[in-house]
Amino acid sequence: MDKETLEVLKSLHTSEIDARNGYEEALVDAEGKGLSPLFLDMVALHDVNAGEIDQVLIRLGEPSDTERSFMSVVNHAITNVRALFDGLGEGLLPGLIDGEERNLAKYDEALETATLPEHVVDLLSTQRGKIAAKISIMQMHRAA
Question: Where does the DUF2383 domain start and stop, copy by copy (predicted)?
Fold first, then answer.
């Protein structure tokens, strides 16, 4: 597999780890209230996605990297400030939706890579679909 494709997969993997870490932080700050059930679902979704992408990278000979990126630190700080001022309730949904839509764009970038093996394309397509379904649920909550 070419270097560009590996970099796209690594970037996607990092995005999934960052998303998981962000939802874990939000879950702690929510203290079991508000959007806690959504945060739990999203932690599980992004954890599975990161693990599956990690396995693909390992099979391709890439070292496993489950550390958080700079964006994880930024997301943590934003979540903490937001919790101080207005809690982690429904007002957070537009930001969550925006973040997940950015994740979808990363999946689109990865899926446009012509050198991905078919089984990886299938995996990423499935993961993308699950994220898109969660976005729809968030949008319904926001509209209600």
Answer: 5-112
